[in-house]
Each structure stands twice: as structure tokens, then as C-alpha cells.
Amino acid sequence: VFAALLVSSIVSLWQAQTAREEARRAAAIKEFLLALIRQADPMASAATRESDVALLSAAEERIATEVAGQPEVTIELRLAIADAYANRGMLDRARATLRTAISEGQHVLGPNNAALAHARIKAAQNFLHVGDDVLQQLDQGIATARSLGSRGQRMLVEGLLNRAAVRSWSSMSAQFETDIREAYELARTALGPGDP
Q1: Positive/negative CA dihedral, 142, 194, 26, 11
Q2: 3-state secondary structure of 172
Q3: What is the per-residue pLDDT across 152-161, written as a single tens digit (0 to 9) for each?
Q4: Residue 176: which residues within 8 A CB-CB, separation 6 or more?
Q5: Tell me, what DSSP letter sits at residue 148?
Q6: Closest to 80 measured CA to CA, from 41, 40, 42
Q7: What per-residue string of b and e applies to 109-130 under the rule 16 or more CB within 10 Å gives b?
Q8: pLDDT by residue (tens digit) across 53-96?
Q9: Is 53 within 8 Å of 47 (Cβ atoms)?
Q10: How far apart are CA 143 and CA 112, in angstroms?
Q11: Distance CA 83, CA 115 (A)
Q12: pLDDT of residue 42 exceeding 60
């Protein structure tokens, strides 16, 4: 009986270690691919830009079938693709991709999901406003970022800065200053001077 328990424990430990290694590998691959998608060279030749856009379009089409059942991964991929479109000056494509990410996320994920909150916050960035409800989307994203505590601080700073930008364009100067101050204090105290 003791030998069986010992063998069972060793097998369990080995399986747990294997699972952790697989998770680390998958995370590294995901980050590598997301970085490749986001990368943009504004000085690239027209042919390179065309092939980049073709690759982004193909990736966007494949998301629905190949990442089905993983809504958080889907949103992350769509955010990376939207960033890549925006970096290439293709703001309409970036808006459409963000709109899809938010729409899909709202149907599948809970309202306080971090990936959906990030999509809502990103939608207000770089003139990528997705609809007239941009402040409502930002408020929801900011509320979720706040609820995440230290895990959501970077997202909260981004959300506050985006909301301040939107408010500066609309005659809400008092709220604009409040958002800027809070973002600055949070970035200074929680993230520190060397944080990217």
C-alpha cells in the first residue's frame, strides 16, 4: 500500500511539473506571436506592408475557427491585430477588429473579465473610438481594472489616460484633470519610474 501511494505521489508530481512546463512554453509562444503581430515598421516598403496586411487579415479570419472556445485568447489576438492595424495607419480596420473583440467578449465573458476590460480601454486609444458609448465602455473597463487590484494597475493607468483624452475632446475639463492626476499618481506610486 505504501509503495502504491509513493508511486502515485511521484506520478502526480511529475504530471504537475510537466503541466507547468507546458504552460510556460505555451505562454512564451503566445507572447512571441503577439509581439510579432504587433510589430510594425512604418518605413517598410509597400510590398512588405501589403504582405503584413494580408497576414493580419488571414490571422483575423482564422481566429473564429482555430481559437473557438477560448474567448480570452481570441480577445488578446484581436487586440494585437488591432494594434498592428493602427500602427500601420489602418484605423478603420483597427476599429472593426476592436468592435468584433468587444462584441464577442460581451456575449461570452462576464462583464468583469480582464480581457474584455482591456479591449474596452483599447477602443478609446489612438482615435479608435468604437461608437458613441466610448465613455461607458471606458468606465466599465476602468471599473474592472480597479477590481483586479495590483494585477490591473497598468490597465487602470491606460484606461484613465484614455478617458482623460476622450474627455479633453468633449468639454469635460474638470473630469479630465481628475483622471490625469489619478493616472499620474498610480503610475508614480504603483508602477514606478522604470516601468514601461
Answers
A1: negative
A2: coil
A3: 888 888 888 8
A4: 164, 167, 168
A5: T
A6: 40
A7: beeebbbbbbbbbbbbbeebbb
A8: 888 888 888 887 887 778 888 888 888 888 888 887 888 888 88
A9: no
A10: 8
A11: 15
A12: no
Provide the terminal-to-terminal Cα distance of the chain, rounded to the nearest Å: 55
Apex 82 CA angle, 110 and 130, nearest 5: 65
**Grid cell in block for residue 9:** 505521489
Cα–Cα nearest to 42, from 78, 10, 86: 86
CA 141 – CA 23 distance, rounded (Å): 27
Q: Which pLDDT score, from 0 to 100, does residue 3 have? A: 66
Give the type of residue at 18. Answer: T
Distance (Å, whole) CA 43 – CA 85: 15
Cα 168 to Cα 23, 165, 177, distances in angstroms = 43, 5, 9
pTM above 0.90, yes or no: no
